[in-house]
Design brief:
globular, two-stranded antiparallel ribbon, 132 residues, mainly alpha, 5 helices
């Protein structure tokens, strides 16, 4: 599994890791039933504190995306009911935050739509082509 954190980013490491794990699941690189590396192994692999990786795993667990059992590795479960409810609420808040930040930065509506469109094409066109 290839995940990296941008040490220069203002986004907390655990959020970067959570986002990347989400992406791996969304793109099918991690599927239901796959095991994630142990917290210790992933922390060592990407040179992060154990607590940072644990926090990321806990976030994914709260969203119903993984299951963490004591003394075993985390398992991708993607509970659609739980994940969908929480994800839609959080997604709505994230989109709103992006719009606010774009407005503050002076990015106009057309520029913002273009950014969204490019990213939508990047993920949805590729996933449709791959059968997702």
């Amino acid at each position: 599994m290839n995940v990296k954190v941008n040490r220069r980013s203002k986004i907390p490491y655990y959020q970067q890791l959570t986002q990347q794990l989400h992406l791996l699941i969304a793109t099918g690189n991690l599927k239901k039933g796959d095991h994630l590396p142990s917290i210790r192994k992933l922390a060592t692999q990407i040179n992060l504190n154990l607590h940072t990786v644990r926090k990321s795993y806990k976030e994914l667990q709260k969203k119903g995306i993984i299951t963490i059992n004591p003394h075993t590795r985390a398992l991708v479960t993607v509970d659609p009911n739980k994940a969908k409810t929480i994800s839609l609420q959080q997604l709505s808040m994230s989109v709103e935050q992006i719009i606010i930040e774009a407005y503050i930065l002076g990015i106009n509506e057309c520029q913002l739509k273009e950014m969204f469109h490019k990213n939508l094409q990047k993920y949805y066109v590729e996933s449709e082509r791959d059968g997702f």
